[in-house]
Amino acid sequence: MPSHGSYRPHEKLNIIYSPYPREKAVIANGIVVTNPSRTLLDCGRTIDFVHSLPIFDDAASNGIEEKQILQECARTTLDCSRIFKLLRYTDAKSENGGESFARAVMIENGFSVPQLQVPFTDPLTGKQSRVDFLWRTADGRIIVGELDGTAKYVDPQMTDRRSIQETVQAEREREQALFRAGVTEIVRFTFDDAVRQKPLIAKLRRAGVPCVS
Asked: Whole-structure pTM over 0.90, yes or no?
């Protein structure tokens, strides 16, 4: 069998040619790959917005700067309009891919871009909590969005080894603390709601989450 690679086209293979000489490539796990900024450019151009934004958020949280990606755009003649949109909405404060994906779905469906990981202090106990998503409406309401997952109820690292009943009670107490801190409404949704989109959209609309005019 030949030991060299093949450049023959394949229906499941998408060949992307890099403008860089091989000596400027990056080695990852022994494999020659494009540098992070160029990889982001290629992902952003070939993958839809809701799946690309988690990649860009994660890159930003790992120190990849916008100017580095813009430099990649300047080196190519390819259409970078998708990249500019992604950079506009990239937020390093997103804590995980699920939150990034959900935010992308919100943006694509016309909702105002939420603030991320906003802290609230319970005036009764002084305890601070951060919320996943936050919107402030023109009439002064504060709407919080929370991405729920089963892990928060069963993963020992997330439950602090409490029982499911204790974890649920702690979540209820946290909600009460948020209301005391001025939150008007809390919208809870799952990752599946975001994937299916319609359930998430319906919940946000019922809560009165503002939309882009």
From this structure: no
